Every structure is written in C-alpha cells, then in structure tokens.
Amino acid sequence: MDKQGSDRHLYEVLVEVRHKEKIADPEGNTIKKALSALGYDRVSRVSVGKAIRVQISADNETEALNQVDKMTQRLLANPVLENYSISVEESNSHA
Amino acid sequence: MPNLIGIVVFPGTNCEFDVAEAVEAVGGNYRFIFHLDKELSDIDAVVIAGGFAHGDYLRPGAIARFSPIMESIEKFAEDGRPVIGICNGFQVLTEAGLLPGALQKNSNLTFLCEPTVLNIETNETPFTSKLSPGSKVKLFINHFSGNYTCNDQTLQELKSNNQIVLTYLNNPNGSTQNIAGICNATRNVVGLMPHPERAIDELLGSDDGLKFFKSLINL
C-alpha cells in the first residue's frame, strides 16, 4: 500500500457492464427462450453482461469511485457496445 | 527489395505462421515481433495476426491493446505506414482506437469457421491495391466476435470516405451493412475479419488471399 498508516480505506467496488440498448444480445435472447421453454412466460427481457469486482484502497468513497470510473472508461468497458454502472459494495478500515 | 513485414505475436496469437507462409509465398520477408518488444524501425508494414491474444479475456483485443508494442504501432500508424489487423488483429485495432467501431459476438451466437465470398469495395488501401473494386474473393472466416458494429455517425463517415474495404455477400455474422473490413480515414490502417493468409493455394480451397499479400509486399 502506498500510504500505510494513513486513514485509507479498502473498498470493494462493483462494476456492472451491460450491452447498450441498441446492441444485439444473442446470449440474453437465447436464455430468454430457454426460460420460456421452462414455462416462465412472463419474462420480457434477459440481458447478459459482466460483473467485475475491484478491491481498491482510497481515502474515501468518492475517490474509490472516481478511480474505478477511470479504469472502466479506459479498459473494463467498450464504449461502442457497452454501458456501465459502478457502486461501492463494502468498505473496511485498514488494519 | 520487397517490404519487410513485421508480424505481431501476443500470448495466444495463433495465425502468425500462416501469415509468414503467405508473405513468403509472394516473395516477401518477415520478422516476428513479440508483444513486449517496441522496435519497428526496420519494418515496412505491420500485420497483427489472428488468434486469441491474452485469452480474449475481458473482450477480444482489450488487454492486447495495452501491450508495449501497441505504443510503437500507434506511432507507426500516425506516420502513415501500413498496419493490417486480421481477425483478432482487427479486434485489437478497434480496441486501440486505430479503427472506428467494434466487433461484437456473432448474431447467431455461433463460432463460424467456413468459406465466405466477399466483395472488394476499394483498392485504395495497402492491403487491396492489387485487387479490383467490385471483384469477388473467396476467403475463410474463423471467429466468434466478428459482428461489426458502429454508430450511425461512424457509418456515414465510413461510407462518405470510402473506408469500407470488404463486404460479405452472405452476411454470416450480423455485421452492420455486411462490413467485413474497413480502413481508417488516412487509409493506411486496415482491419478485416476473414483470413487471406489461409487462402494461398487452390489445395486449401482458394488462392484469392495471395493478392492481398502481393499488395502489401510491393507497395
């Protein structure tokens, strides 16, 4: 850790990456068909994306979210195909 | 002297020897370039070969795009020198922002490995200069994420700048406007999903791929 002994916290940040509305989701559509074959005929949409959990140390929650937002824009999501949302799942003080 | 072709190899690349064979078949020379290298000063044209760079983790090309060699390739491309991405190489070039759009999963969610007929849309690129616009070629596709996708503005730009290089006759993967290959606005960066390096002998079912490599060798 780069700032040991400071009041940094450890955050678990969840990045959810999903297809944009206009982008075909063949996997989601196939699962939807399988669900309807099982009798779940009220399911109107199934969308398959990715959940990426990032553990990161930061001074506060805002900084943790900003860092993960930057890395998501650079690497974790492709802006042509995907949207994303970011949320903090957990935070723990450094021991 | 024929051009020296630099063939980029990431962990997981698996078409580098086919590309090397194709370059030799038309009388060219090549050198493999490992993704941790940065040196391109002796190279006349770069080919990013197909495969599954870095296991296709996250998205095809997403990790490869940050390999050390990519910084050199970006400069090489900025200087107007030829950069060709085949299949996974095309995916790397879109992830790197050297070509617009993206390749998403095939619309039928099936890995496609089959011959396909393509229309040559332009010969104004370093990889198609010896082909005639409107002519047809038979090449092989071998991909899961070959469905070319872009927004309406990008599509308009591709059309108005004549940047669509190859189109499928029988769109096998759901690509926007049957697009199988494109180039950048300055025409020196070309990406395509089909594999010309696998079509270099009638014994393999087609030798239509030779003309692509002849184009690249004799710039």
What's the CATH class of chain A, please? Alpha Beta
List the uncertain runs of chain A: none
Quickly give the structural class of chain A. alpha+beta
Mean pLDDT of chain A: 89
Backbone shape of chain B: globular
**Rg on CA atoms of chain B, Å:** 15 Å
Mean pLDDT of chain B: 96
Backbone structural class of chain B:
alpha/beta
Secondary structure: helix percent of chain B? 10-25%
Task: Describe the largest sheet of chain B.
Answer: 9 strands, mixed
What overall geometry of chain A do the principal axes of the alpha carbons give?
elongated
Could you list the spans of chain B in which at least 5 consecutive residues all have pLDDT below 50? none
Q: Report the total helices of chain A.
A: 2
CATH architecture of chain A: 2-Layer Sandwich
CATH architecture of chain B: 3-Layer(aba) Sandwich
Oligomeric grouping of the chains? heterodimer
Task: Describe, in plain words, how this protein is organized in 3D.
The complex is a heterodimer of chains A (95) and B (219). Chain A has one domain: Phosphoribosylformylglycinamidine synthase subunit PurS (Mth169, Chain: A, 2-Layer Sandwich). Helices cover 29% and strands 34% of the residues of chain A. Chain A contains two helices and three strands. Chain A has helices at residues 26-37, 61-76; strands spanning 9-19, 50-58, 82-93. A three-stranded antiparallel beta sheet of chain A has the order 2-1-3, covered by helices on one side. Chain A is elongated and about 55 Å long. Chain B has 219 residues and is an alpha/beta fold. In chain B, the strands form two sheets. Chain B has a nine-stranded mixed beta sheet, sandwiched between helices. Chain B has a two-stranded antiparallel ribbon with strand order 5-8. Chain A binds chain B through residues 23-24, 26-27, 30, 75-76, 78, 80-81, and chain B through 58-59, 62, 66, 94-95, 101-102, 104-109, 147, 149-151, 174.
